[in-house]
Design a protein that fits this description.
The protein is an alpha+beta fold. The protein is 22% helix and 42% strand. The protein has one domain: Phage tail protein-like (STM4215-like, 2-Layer Sandwich). The strands form two sheets. Strands 1, 2, 3, 6, 7 and 8 form a six-stranded mixed beta sheet that branches. It has a two-stranded antiparallel ribbon with strand order 4-5. α1 (3-16) packs across α2.
Length: 139
Amino acid sequence: MFTLELWAAGQMAQALGDGWHCFADSTTPGRRDSAPMCIVQLQPGHVAAQGVGAVQVGPQIAVQLVARRTNATAALLGDAIATAIATLHGAAPGKQSGRFWERLALQSIAHPLIEDEGFVCAELMFSTSARYQGCADSQ
């Protein structure tokens, strides 16, 4: 499942361009203090459907857009939000971690508080799902 983070971070890096530091939070080593940043995180999801022998798992993918607080921040984050939606909503991750994932769908947009007063964050939450096989004995 964590390859979804890598895939989404790669999509965002390409779309946002060189001025942004984009990374998959769980799997990318390195510093987390440059801005603007696009942080992609796999978040808890839900079990969309379950049956004997298989389960449909629906994780969430959070895209956090972080920028330093300046007079240009509103425009910078506004453009980045539009880019994230245009890049990921409806995008098909294809085969990741051995299974095919459904197209991403935007679920929410939030403005989470950041402890450092010098930064502003916008968070977009996308959903997807894929089928996982259960125990072969249960089929």
